[in-house]
């Protein structure tokens, strides 16, 4: 296991190097630069703009700019945000807490509902309850997240007034108090529900179909022939094999903790990594944009590794050599 993990981690290094080249190239191909996102070119002396570009190294050859950027990046210096006037690492760290809180809340909702509905639909297939769950799942897979977010804000925030429509906490509360954390929980429930319920649909269908398929296999017939109780057959034999795909999905969900909430955070004006990414694109904040893109890419590789490891852990037939 350790040798496999070490090989995979070493294999990430050249891949991250190639990703960094692609990220840098795409950033340079975008119109404008960091200066154009910080000042208004129409109301600023062109000579001053050119002097600033020369001072910041934007006129240097691309390979020199890349070498300078990747060298600083490896040392933990991600640059400085031109919009927020602060180091990118501090800015990301400030927003990351909210995104992780939102992602974990959405995952709890997703796995709880998908296990509950998937097990029910799998044990009682082709019943009225199964058809209702299936219809709800297909509706959830068909509706876009931005549409669900807008309807959730209108119904639960504006019409019923149950949840706030934006923000992550009441700014009048003192950090660290019980009221502060209750306010954070109150603000995260609605976006977490939107993010979690849309993921629940596919997970429920996966679990339901696997339970039905495994219930027809030979080892289940053998267990029934030996007089094993139906409850034990489902909980020990069928469910144990059916949850393997869902557990391995947990590795890929590491990516959704951070990057999957981009649309949801933007709709709910939730101050997290997703909203920061959209704002960095709109304001040409290239240092933030490049750092976040590299972070998302790294998370994808780590998520794949975790998924492979979990697959070997939950399924003893798999051996990672």
UniProtKB/TrEMBL annotation:
GO annotation (BP), single: transmembrane transport
Residue ranges crossing the lipid bilayer per the database entry: 100-120, 132-156, 188-207, 243-268, 288-314
Topology of this chain in the membrane: Multi-pass membrane protein
Domain ABC transmembrane type-1, chain residue ranges per copy: 96-307
A GO term from the CC aspect: plasma membrane
Keyword terms of this UniProt record: Cell membrane, Membrane, Transmembrane, Transmembrane helix, Transport
PROSITE patterns associated with the record: ABC_TM1
Keyword Phosphoprotein in annotation: no
Subcellular location, record wording: Cell membrane
The family this protein is said to belong to: Belongs to the binding-protein-dependent transport system permease family.
Entry protein name: ABC transporter permease
Organism: Virgibacillus salarius
């Amino acid at each position: 296991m350790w040798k496999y993990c070490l090989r995979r981690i070493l294999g990430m290094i050249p891949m991250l190097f190639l990703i960094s080249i692609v990220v840098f190239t795409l950033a340079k191909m975008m119109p404008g630069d960091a200066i154009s996102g910080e000042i208004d070119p129409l109301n600023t002396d062109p000579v001053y703009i050119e002097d600033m570009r020369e001072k910041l190294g934007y006129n240097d050859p691309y390979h020199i700019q890349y070498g300078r950027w990747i060298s600083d990046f490896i040392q933990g210096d991600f640059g400085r945000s031109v919009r927020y006037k602060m180091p990118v690492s501090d800015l990301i760290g400030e927003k990351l807490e909210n995104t992780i809180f939102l992602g974990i809340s959405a995952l709890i909702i997703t796995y709880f509902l998908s296990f509950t509905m998937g097990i029910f639909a799998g044990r009682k297939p082709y019943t009225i309850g199964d058809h209702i769950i299936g219809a709800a799942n297909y509706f959830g897979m068909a509706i876009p997240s931005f549409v669900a977010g807008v309807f959730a804000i209108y119904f639960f925030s504006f019409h019923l007034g149950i949840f706030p429509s934006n923000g992550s906490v009441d700014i009048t509360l003192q950090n660290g108090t019980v009221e502060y954390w209750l306010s954070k929980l109150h603000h995260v429930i609605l976006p977490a529900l939107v993010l979690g319920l849309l993921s629940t649909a596919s997970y429920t269908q996966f679990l339901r179909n696997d339970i039905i398929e495994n219930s027809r296999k030979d080892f289940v017939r053998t267990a029934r022939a030996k007089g094993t109780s139906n409850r034990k057959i489902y909980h020990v034999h069928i469910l144990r094999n059916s949850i393997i795909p869902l557990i391995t999905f947990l590795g890929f969900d590491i990516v959704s903790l951070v990057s999957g909430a981009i649309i949801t955070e933007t709709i709910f004006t939730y101050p997290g990594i997703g909203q920061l990414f959209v704002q960095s694109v709109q304001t040409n904040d290239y240092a933030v944009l490049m750092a976040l893109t590299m972070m998302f890419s790294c998370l994808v590789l780590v998520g794949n590794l975790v998924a492979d490891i979990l697959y070997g852990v939950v399924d003893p037939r798999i051996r990672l050599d």
